[in-house]
Amino acid sequence: MCDTGKVAELAQIADKVAKTPGQKTIAQYACQGLAFNGQPPNTTLAITVVEAESNEALAATQYPMGLAGISTWAVPVLEIPVGRVVTAEKKYRK
Question: What is the pTM for the complete model shown?
């Protein structure tokens, strides 16, 4: 998330860090409106879905953005096949 005035800089950094070893970019999205209540006006929110091999690979992506004043969040997610939620829940309960 960053001030809209930084979008050009964000684009350059995003293209550069997309080639970081140890991670693979799956998808990128740009929110075309206020993504959540309380988001400051003139703020751009971008979402990138990546597969990272390690925390170090993820940090190598986030650190350059932080230096540029861009707020980033890393949120771990678990892919669960459609129709297999009960099976996945039992697997991870053990």
Answer: 0.66
